[in-house]
Amino acid sequence: MKKRVATCACGQLRVNCAGDPVIVSLCHCLDCQKRTGSVFGIAAFFASENVEQQGEFRIYRRGSNSGFAVNFHFCPHCGSTVCWEPERKPDAIGVAVGSFADPAFPSPSQSVYDERRHAWVPPSPHTNDLPQNPGILHGLSINRSEKEAIAIQFAGLSARDNPMQVQLVRRQLPAAHGRRARV
Ligand SMILES: [Zn+2]
Ligand SMILES: [Zn+2]
User: Is 141 exposed, middle or buried (0-12, 13-18, 19+ CB in 10 A)?
Assistant: First the structure.
């Protein structure tokens, strides 16, 4: 099984990851911009049993739009956030892709919060990307039909005042009509 190590800037906080990430997700949201100091964040989600953390850390806990808190583990010496535990998905650990310092790391397969994307950042090439994150996308073993179901659910949430939008999304995604998103 492939082994990768993510570390903070000073190197004392290490996160050992076995195997490949389940999903790599790029996020344009303002919380990720604040956390990273960059204009988007990229997370690699691993099954928690494949992740082992070594070194001193502190936790910064914040809420998220999904209603579940996220616990960010950061190095008390250099301040880098290396990994986090999404309470919505206790079986997953998010690891900051930049912490691997590996330009060959697998590229993101989705991006969320496109409405917060800086104008000069190229749009994502991925299909089914969402203008926001309904909080479900940071899940394990998500597949295309689940993404479609989520797109419908999201449209339903955002389009309470605009039922035409829901109809439009359903027409674009006929296979997923009537499916419920997994939570
Ligand atoms: Zn450090
Ligand atoms: Zn984000």
Answer: exposed
The total of other beta-carbon atoms located within 10 Å of residue 29's CB is: 20
Q: For the residues 125-154, what does the mean pLDDT come to?
A: 51
Residue 70 alpha carbon to ligand 2 centre in Å: 11
pLDDT at 133: 62
In the chain, what are the domain boundaries? 3-131, 143-183
Shortest-distance ligand to the CA of residue 65: 2
Sign for the CA dihedral angle at 137, 140, 141, 146 comes to: negative
CA of 32 to the centre of ligand 2 (A): 4
9 Cα–ligand 1 center, Å: 5
Q: pLDDT by residue (tens digit) across 93-136?
A: 999 999 999 999 999 999 999 999 999 999 888 766 666 665 44
Out of 3.30.1360.140, 2.170.150.70, 3.90.1150.10, 3.40.50.720, select the CATH number for domain 3-131: 2.170.150.70
Place of tokens 């449209």: 155
- Judge if pTM exceeds 0.85: no
Q: Residues whose CB is under 5 A from ligand 2 (ion)?
A: 27, 29, 32
Dihedrals φ, ψ of 143, to 5°?
-120, 180
Query: What confidence score (pLDDT) does residue 33 get?
Result: 97
